[in-house]
Design goal:
single chain; 380 residues; alpha+beta; Aminopeptidase; Alpha-Beta Plaits; 2 domains; six-stranded mixed β-sheet; 9 helices; 33% helix; binds zinc ion
Length: 380
Amino acid sequence: MKSANAKILQDQLIRLTRDLIVIESTDSKPEERARCFQVVRNHLDEVPGVVLKRHEYSGYESLLALPEGTDHPEILLCAHLDVVEHPQSESYRSEIKDGRIIGAGAGDMKGQMAILLELFRKRHSENPGISLGLAITSDEEQGGEAGVCCLLKEAGLRCGVAIIPDGGSLNRITVEEKGILHLQIRARGHSSHAARPWLAENPLERLLVRIPPVLHWFKEQRGSQEGSLESDPHWYPTCSVTMMETPNDSVNCIPETAMATLDIRFPPPWTCDTLIEKLGKLLGEEVEIEKIIGAEPSHLAPDESFVKLTTEVTGEPVDLIRSSGASDGRFFAEQGIPVMLSRPEVGNLHGEDEWIDVDSMLVYYEICDRYIGKKIGDRR
Ligand SMILES: [Zn+2]
């Protein structure tokens, strides 16, 4: 049986999550992202002692809610309101079924954003001036460079610790994330008639010859890095070829250039530089490499008392896990700021039937609430 208070909180979280899901805040719809920010602002408007500040970088809005007179809150709650694109608007409806809220964006991360908004409001109403901040960004699905990255590097945002419910699960707290390298590789030649292939080397064929040794090398890395954390059997560098193209549009023409993009994920001790050097050798001098995005692997260093509280509240042991994906946590890690990356139970992420489990939302809320209470509850 839930207490009356828990029931009220549950209803609030469900309502707010569903109100947020119905807004199609995708990359192609800046007006919907703006509308979503408006809903968030409305929710925070009357919180006593809090200043809302709007930031914008490269067309992406961010919102910072900070206690008056503080630029560096002890605890920062962090969420992104952008969601992935689906062709049908109907995907952005939600339903409640089997104790879950099901709908596009429910678990990544409108449900979690609802939790953070409620927590922020409650804590500031009870204890005005508490050193608790909130950051909402809108480009995480695009890499976070104009969101969290700019808030830290351009707006000078800092905090004691960051709570980001966008990875792991309730009892699985992420401690390490792989680095990312997005590369474009390019071969050049001369366009010529395909009937006389002896006249020009074909750059497309050169890529087709040069890429397999790269893929082979990455396959050899499987199982090459043993570690003490057993939860990720894929803790080695991987490479996916994600695009291949030429400007060519005729069947009987040898193209002048050919490009491919590679999405590479890697754990330490590899770095962006050492991997690019390795790829240079594998691809040979005639293939150019251009870096689109590069981020080193991160160590998230969650606060031990958060880990302990998670065990206490859930009654289950905590796994400290490694993740092959990357989150906004890496930007905080770069600044030496500890990150708490766990979340309620979610599933089918980026699918139309994405879901978040309602009971686990309440549990996650309680973990964070107790953590805030323990760390800064009695301080301003
Ligand atoms: Zn996310």
